[in-house]
Structures are given as C-alpha cells and as structure tokens.
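Worked Example 4.2. Read the sequence first, then its structure tokens.
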Amino acid sequence: MTDTLLWHIDRALLEAARRGELSEGQLVELLLAHVEELCPICRREREAERAVERPAVDYAGVVRRVRHSRRLREELDALAEEGARVPELLETLRRLSPGQRLLRVKNAPERYASRALCEALFAEARSCLPADPAGSRGWAETAAAVAALYPERYPAHEVRALAFKGNAERAAGDFRRGEELLVRARHVMAEHQVTDLDLVAELHSFLASLHTDLRRFAEAEQHLSVAARLYQALELEEELARVVLQLATLHRHRGNIDAALAADREAVALLSPEVHPRLYLAARLNLAFHLHVAGEPEAARDLLLYDLDLYEEHADSHTRVRVRWLEGRLAMATGEPEVAEEALVEVRDRFAAQEHGFNAALACLDLAELYHRQGRLDALREAAGQAVALFRAHEIHREALAALLLFQEAAATHRVTVETLHHVARFLGQAARDPAARFDRAR
C-alpha cells in the first residue's frame, strides 16, 4: 500500500470476498465506486443512471417497496426512541463496576435490550484503549450481555462484542486468548453472513494489531490492507487514520522508519485537532517518536512544543506519561542531562506506581544510558538495581529478568556499553509482547 489515499481493489480485498466477509454485491459496489473515482465518463454515466425516474409498471413490486419502507420507518422511529434513552442508561452503567453492570443488565432486560445502547457501549470500549485494556474488556462484556437480550438475534453485535473482547485481551498481553476470540468473531461473522463493511474493516484492524504484536508482519499487512480499502470506500477518515497509524507502527517494527514517518504524516492529514483531538494528538506523538528514532531529535522536540497546549487540554494520563518519556529521551539526545534526568525519574516512578514492570525497567535503562554518558557509575549501578527490583516486583518473565540481571552484573563490574543497554531494551520490548521470547546472551 504505497498511497493510502488512492485506494485499489487488491488481492487482500478479493480474498476477503472469497472467504465470505464481503458479499458479491458489496464487492461490485466497491468496484463501481473505484471506477467512478478514476474515470469521469463512468462517473457521469452512473450519476445519470441514478437520476433516471423509472416507470411504475410492477405494482406488486411497488407495494413490496412501500411495505418495506413503512417497516424501515417504524424501525428508524424505534431506534430514535431508544437513542433518546441512551445517555441516561449509559450514565447509570458508568457508575457501576463491570460485574455490577452485568447484573444490572440481566435483571432489567426490558430496559437495557437496546441496539442504540449497545453501539454506545462499543464506543466506550473503544475509548478505553490503549490505556485501559481491562476497562475495554468490561464494556465489551456489557455489550455482549445487552446483545443477548434482543428479542430477535442480531449477529453483527455478537461479532463486534467478540472482536472488542479479543482486542482488549490482545492489548492486555494475553495473545492466545485474544486470537481465540478474534477467530471466533470471524466464524460467527461467516456463519451468519454478517457483511457490514465497517464491522469487517474493524475486525481486520484488530487482527492486524494482534499479528503485529506477534511479529507476523506479512499477515498484519494483509489485514491492514483490507481495513484501509474498506474505510477509504466508506469515506470514514477517522477510522482510516487509525489504520494508517497501525501501518506506521508496522513499518517501524520492520525497520523502515521513512515509511513509518510517511504513514504518520498521512494520518495527521486525515485528522483535525478540533474534531478528533485525542486521535490527532496520538498521530502527532507517533510522528514525534519516529522523528526521534530517525535521528531528528530537534524536529521531534519542536513538534511536541507546538502541541503542548493541546496535550494539556486533551491528553489522558496514558498519553501524558508517554509525552514526558519522549521529552526525557529528547533532552538526553540534545544535551540537556538535568532536564532528561528529571523527566525520566518521573516516568520511572509513574510506571512503578502503575505496577508496570516492563515500562518501569525500560525507563531505568534510559536513566542508565544517561548516567553512562555522564560517567556516573554509582548512579548507573543504582539504576540497574532499580530495574531488576521493579521488574521482579510486577512481572513474571524469566528471560526478561535474566537479561536485566546480566545488565546489573555488567553495571557492577563496569562492563556496560551503550550497545548493551540498547540490546537489553530491545529485548524487553519484545518480551512484553511474547512470553516465549528468548534472550541472546552472546551479544
């Protein structure tokens, strides 16, 4: 996918149709939309065809259409009535724990059996990520409970609830359970011939995140391709921007920083700070981080400074700590050791308070690099000890702990190099996603 803003019918999309995730009619509509986009003559003819007023010769067909239209109006009216009650119901559920929400829904089915409410619950599940996977899972479980109450089964909501639960498990680091739920969502989708294009795209997006975390980069790219093509055809720019940001992360993992930067800039161009402030800031932070990785710390720092007021107004706690972390790394790269140390100590302490052993240890490694540059060997040994203690207190990963213990031993005997620090940090990043990761001690 070289240009995400010019879309094509590619092999991944055709394979999705072959698997039944898209109907033949939907594929034809996508093909026609693509032809219209590229050819002004085809576009003119399609517009003319739509404008033609057809003679009413099939009265039985007209009656069927009128009846269908009346049923549709009745359903739309019912949905509008449901929608009016959603804010009150949602506010009630927000005050409860996930377990209490399930009991409340189960004990009052006539009150909570609402498709409009279920859509709002999916929005809650989406808003929790990436900072709060457990919260996202809780809202997805509530949505599943609501969908189970419908008088008539609605498989699209069953699929989406499974997909959100799977994505939340993936975000929490349980990749086996996450994959199991996402595969089940695909099976339910195929079994009930659910072909809502936005749902198909979202499921592919979730699968792409899973495969990226598991280092299955080819599979991740295929899923991103399908999701991007569908969101482009549906003209859903916010959702497309999320997929482009996933693509940037994929490029970074593959070592192609130029492609990651290009994808970040595409995502930023799709978003507005007024309409999508949180996602816009996520895209800008991604861009700043990749500029840092690309060896452009001044450009990255300028970007952060430019957005400082927006971060103050819109960033959640998850984003704030990552901004502070990047500020510390950039200060170290630009020769401001006191600023760097203050920021990195703050980040280490925040992750320790959150009991996030991997990130706390990584912040300690950043501090160790700073102390190594300054020749502060006592402080370096202390940072190594803190990394081991914080990781041991909050995580269980034998290979990651072994890597940190080797680093601590090297610090105690003055054998630490910057290459050693980077090697251990890269491994910790891998181990956080892969419980079976093995540390290469020979390096």
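Now turn to a second chain, presented in exactly the same format:
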Amino acid sequence: MKRSILLLLALVFLFGTVTVADAHSTKGRKKVFLKKDVITKDDMAYYIESYVHRKKYKDLYEKSNNRFYVEDFTKVEQKDKTADIFFTVLDVKNNKTFKDSMHFKKSSKGIWVHIDENKKNIGQVYTYISKKKSYSKYTVFFHCIVIALGAGIFIFMRIKRYLNTAEY
C-alpha cells in the first residue's frame, strides 16, 4: 500500500514539475507574438536586443552592423496600452554607453507593436516562451486525466484484491 502511494506521488512530481530555461536563450523555446497585458523587461528583451543590434542605428552610422548592443534595461513605463522601455546601449566601436528608449503600443488584435519616433508601426513584438509553457493548457489537462486514471486503477485493484480475499 505504502509503495503504491509513494510510486503515485513520485510520478506526480516527475511529470508535474516545470523547468526554467536560461534567460534570453532561445534553445528549447518557441517564438510567439507578445500579447501580455502587463509587460516586463524580460518580455521585451528578445525583440529589443535584436532590433538594436541589427536595425536601430542603421541609418545613423555607416558601419552599424554588430556595433551596438543592449547593455542593460533600466525601466518600463506602461500606461494602459502603451509602453516605453528604457535601456543603456553599448557602442562597441567607441567603447561608450548611452541611454535610449523605444515606444510600443498594443494593437486591436492584442499584440504589442513597435512604434518609431514618427508614430509609424515598425513591427509586431515577439518573445520566446518555453515549449512546455506553450503546451501547458494541454499538459495540465493531460496530467489531471493521468492522475485520475491512475487513482481509479489503484482503487479498482484494491477493491478487486479485497473481494478476492474475502471469505463467503
């Protein structure tokens, strides 16, 4: 009896735990559009880091490729469906840092959109979530079914065993 309960608990812990991936690593993650109501620095980091590195200063400097990196995110100011993300940029060529920001708004579809200084839409913001998290609504349901099925089999076996050992 005790072994069965311990085995059942071990299976629940084995399949019920969630692992956390490394921050800003895309390994084992799925790219999705950002639709959260309240955003954080980490939600925007994938998009902003890539945009700063490849496109943000392309028109300002001739050789901007691989020159600029986001060094640190300083703050997020969100008001309803708009947000400003402030960060520090490292200029590798001059080995200097400067502060910058980017503006975002939430579209009618619920996706965050990057807006430039001229109020022009640049692109939809994406982020990466763990593949386990993207399937979480299905896995929680699956885990509940497996646990209920396991408990049902366990109870059935106990009743069957009791009936076989009972004297008539």
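Notes for the reader: Residues 23-128 form one domain. The chain has four helices and seven strands.
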